[in-house]
Amino acid sequence: MQVKLLHDEPLAGSLPLIAFAVFEGNEPLDGPSAQADEILDGDFSRARAAGDFRGREEEFALFYSDDVEGGTPRRILFLGAGPRGDADSETMRKLAARAVRRAEALHMTRVAVQVPLAVLDDVELAVQASVEGGALAAWDFRELKSGSEDPTGERSPGALRGISPPASPLVEELVLCVTGDRELAERGLRTGRAFAAGENLARTLQCRPGNVATPEHLAEVAQSLADEYGFDATILGPAELEAEAMGAILAVTAGSTQEPRLIVLEHRGGREGDPPIALVGKGLTFDTGGISIKPASGMEDMKYDMSGGAAVLGAMRAIGELGTPANVVAVVPASENLISGRATKPGDIIRTRAGKTVEVINTDAEGRLILADALSYVVDRYHPRAIVDCATLTGACVIALGNHAAAVLGNDEKLIDELRAAGDRAAERCWPLPLWKVYRKQLESEAADLKNVGGRPAGTVTAACFLSEFVGDSTWAHLDIAGTAYGEPRAPYHRKGGHGFPTRLLLEWVRDRAG
Ligand code: BES
Ligand code: MN
Ligand code: ZN
Questions:
Q1: What is the CA radius of gyration of the chain?
Q2: Ligand 1 centre from 429 Cα, in Å?
Q3: Does residue 392 contact residue 477 with C-beta atoms inside 8 Å?
Q4: In 10 A of CB 514, how many CB atoms?
Q5: Catalytic status, residue 282
Q6: What distances in angstroms separate CA 140 from CA 148, 285, 498, one per listed residue?
Q7: Coil vs helix vs strand at 227
Q8: Is 368 known to be catalytic?
Q9: What is the mean pLDDT of each run of 10 residues along the chain (515 residues)?
Q10: Quick one: which of 172, 294, 335, 508 could link to 289 by a disulfide (CB 3.0–4.6 Å)?
Q11: 337 in Cβ contact with 285 (< 8 Å)
């Protein structure tokens, strides 16, 4: 979608749908909303007086003015924004998203939003968040639906056969009406656009099914990002993984006919010779569990097991587009976890790239294996200043934190604090779990250096504990995104499916580091 700024009052132009935010309580309407109410001859004030609109977050009220523009009445939408005192950047994201979804419901492709800048006291952030909310809300995964090439949906062959109702067209243009410092607003626009485009790329990759988003496909997408933004790309295939002695990735991929890839992208936006920061994402393109097979019910969701890798590629897209002044290296180990006569078996002992041997008790604990080799590779090659990995790693994380926070664990309190702060800014939150030495005992193996599972207790902690064995003394933190990367919508800019989480968190953190 296109997002534009209008440094002017919205009612002057010919915008066909304009949304205004109204906070909870009985405070008088602000300038632009008061004007809108005036055009409506006080219809909205009367709705408020009747108690039908209190400004709560779930409320909206839609009116039609008779200041007819080109034969169509103008639509004026009031959105409840909750208590003014609670307003933050997420309020802005949600307002823009709700305006876009209202437009979508009305089959309109253009919408304007009056951004209530005053409440945030930070024009750049308010604009960035509004752009993000709008552009994230407009995105949908339609590329595999017949007729999706027709934006009106009218000639959809599926629809003609009565298979699916015609989809409403996607909203193509969002006009944000802003006041105040133009330069700050333009900066917010640029950042918001790039962050949303990055997250939307992550979502698209997540939603692509396992037969489309193969390891090879992820590598192709990474290569095209490199071509577009000038990253250095290194893509390792089976022979190179063998040469690197990446026994853990090779063990996970053994049961599959799809070739694995280790994807490495380098962005050099910082000082030459400065060690990079590293983003590592689990790119498991389909997780059957392997010989320790998962139950059939819901297994289709395991196409999302590459969500960490998708977020890392999405973040790199934004980093490239913004020319972020930092050195960043991205690593995505990509593999399937399938079943065949060649598959790794429970009890098999493998040798990781780092030299440590692992007893594979459960072939479904494969994410930590591919990450182990990726982490040791990035540590040895790049000596990163800090490493952040993200992975749909454990079902236990969903039990611990549900769908509203990722777990964060690592070996550096300051890094963990930075990630928590970045998550708060992005509204992609994470919450710490302890990574104490006592948990290491659960990974002790009779026959190898360690085993790949630590039993039921503290499953998220023991998984992170396993990863910690492969980062040497690097500053490192891990985000378990099993409960947050995809699923039911949790915000008005989500749809059911891939959420792109934690693309924005990573980007806020990288920007923070870049200074
Ligand atoms: N990809 C799964 C984790 C997962 C589960 C992600 C549910 C999203 C939703 C991972 O590879 C896995 O299977 N983990 C096992 C580990 C266990 C065998 C120690 C799990 O969590 O059950
Ligand atoms: Mn698994
Ligand atoms: Zn997995």
A1: 24
A2: 21
A3: no
A4: 16
A5: no
A6: 11, 20, 10
A7: helix
A8: yes
A9: 92 89 93 94 96 96 82 90 96 98 97 92 95 98 81 46 68 95 97 98 98 98 98 98 98 98 98 98 99 98 99 99 98 99 98 99 99 99 98 98 98 98 98 98 98 98 99 98 98 98 98 94
A10: 294
A11: no
